[in-house]
Amino acid sequence: MAPQHPGTDPAPDRTSAPGAIRVRPGHRDLNARSDPADQRELVMENTGDRPVQIGSHIHLPDVNAALAFDREHARGFRLDVPPGTSLRFEPGASRRVAIVRFGGLGRVPGLQIRRDGTDGALLPGAR
């Protein structure tokens, strides 16, 4: 086996690294919906004294109670951000966010939906 010398090996191929995402060149519409009613905006404010972070696929009415917003208007919705990302709200911070209705059957396996106490429940308004 040839000796390895740090810094002399060629750069790793980033497309074959664990967890790498490989896509064809071009434009991708994430979270695209055909019905305009499936996309909304709302204002959220962190009324707490600690930062709050919301992940891309959490059912919005069930997020931290320190976030003030119209939870009923957000039933069946999640943040309109790329999968695996999140938004962070510092204490006292307020911002307008885009939200999108859960797609498909509206099921998110492993997600606790407190509204009816089931896991991966069919969310209200899912199509």
Automatic annotation (TrEMBL):
Keywords noted in UniProt: Hydrolase
Q: Which reaction does it catalyse?
A: urea + 2 H2O + H(+) = hydrogencarbonate + 2 NH4(+)
Compositionally biased residues, Basic and acidic residues = 26-38
Disordered: annotated segments: 1-38
Q: Which domain of life is it from?
A: Bacteria
Q: Which InterPro entries match?
A: Urease_beta-like, Urease_betasu_sf, Urease_subunit
Q: Which SUPFAM superfamilies match?
A: Urease, beta-subunit (SSF51278)
Q: Where is the signal peptide, in residue numbers?
A: none
For this protein, the record's Pfam families field holds: Urease_beta
This protein's name: Urease subunit beta
**Source species of the chain:** Brachybacterium halotolerans
Lineage, opening ranks: Bacteria, Bacillati, Actinomycetota, Actinomycetes, Micrococcales
